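Format notes (please read before filing issues)

Several people have asked whether sequences and C-alpha cells are stored in separate files. They are not. Every record keeps both together, in the order shown below: the sequence lines, then the C-alpha cell lines. Line labels are part of the format and must not be stripped during preprocessing.
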Amino acid sequence: MGETTVAASSADLMVDLIISLDGYASAEGWPGWWGLEGPEYLAWLGQEGEKDYTFLLGAKTYRLMSSMSEESAAGASGFSEDEGASLTGLAAVPKVVFSSTLQEPLTWPNTELVTGDAVQAVAELKRTRTGTLSTLGSLSLCRSLLTAGLVDRFRLVVFPVITGSTGRERIYDGYPDISLEMVNSRTFDGRLQLLEYIPTVLSGPPGSGPT
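Then the structure lines:
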C-alpha cells in the first residue's frame, strides 16, 4: 500500500493598505479613516479580524500602534467607539515586529520580535507558517517585500479624499514598476472602494525586455 503524500502548507503574504485617492496613508488634522468609515466597512473589518491573520510591522508602526492600543484599552479619550474597538482588538492578534532597536520583553501582547533581515525572515515565515501574513502600516516594510517579489496579494481600500495640502506618508514613493491583476473589488457604504490584486514586479515597462 503506497504512502499518501500531503503537500506542505504555507502562508500567503498580503500588503494591506488604506489610502487617499492621491496616494497618502494619512493626513494631518484629519480623523482616523479620514472620518469616512461607515457601518458596512466596519462590519467587514470585524469579519476580517476573525480570520487567521498574523500582522507584520516595523518598529515605528509598533511604537505608534501599541501605544494607541494601550491608551484605547485604558479608556483614553480621543478615539471614536469604532476606532477604540479596532485598536483594542489588535492586542489579541499574532504580530511580528522587525526591528534592530526594540528589545524584549515587548509590552504589546502576542508580539514576536525579529531582529534580523526582514525580507529573509518573511520568506521563512511564508514557508513555515499557515494562514495569511498581512502588513500593518509600515510603508518601508511593504515596499521592501514588494520589491523582493514576496507579496501574493496587494489590497487597497481607497478613500474618496484628495489631501494635497495635508497628506502625510506617500505610499508609492520608491516602489518598483509593478503590474497588477485584479482578483477582487467591492464598494463599502457607497463611497469606499476595495481593490485587490496579484502583483508582479517588472524590470521595466512592458515590451522593454524580460520581466
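For reference, the curators noted about this record: The first helix runs from residue 39 to 49. The helical segments are 39-49, 59-73, 81-89, 118-128, 139-147.
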